[in-house]
Amino acid sequence: MGFYDQYCLPHLIDYACSLDIIQSQRVKVVPAAEGRVLEVGMGSALNIPFYDPDKVDFVWGLEPSQAMRKKARKNLRRAPFEVRLLDLPGEEIPLDDNSVDTVVLTYTLCTIPDWHNAMQQMRRVLKPGGKLLFCEHGQAPDERVRKWQDRVNPLWKKVAGGCHLNRPIPGYIEAGGFTIQSLDTGYLPGPKFAAFNYWGMAKQV
Questions:
Q1: Is the pTM of this model over 0.90?
Q2: What's the number of domains the chain is made of?
């Protein structure tokens, strides 16, 4: 791992993901989590304030980056429930089948290298009737914006830790074995090529 990835990128990601407009998106989905929760790509634990402690038993926080786990410590100390960190990527979820009530994905699916395997892993650990809550940025519906996303994406991936601008998030969720129950979309303030968001809830097929 190079100097940029180890010492600069975690601070950049933490800053970008903690902007007020992004936090306002998190609050649209995270409070619906309940029971035994798996958060995939916990990062610096920015979702912690938005969980409803009366609904949550505990949270497994899957985060492969040591630097991001270190940055998460301050937020984790404020958690009013137990958080169990798992230092593995989304493609390797070390939990039993049917052991999770809620999976939470916030600004994570854009980055996971093997997204299809990761989605299947989430489906495997989710209990029948459990829910997947998601809030992600991705492919825009407007052709002109999509063209810019495709142009910028190769450079964006290099500077943003593998983040993709142009992933069709609903398609990825459905290809992973889920049916989307609710879906909202829209552009957030900012450059349009990085601003189209999806948020909602899905369940297993």
A1: yes
A2: 1
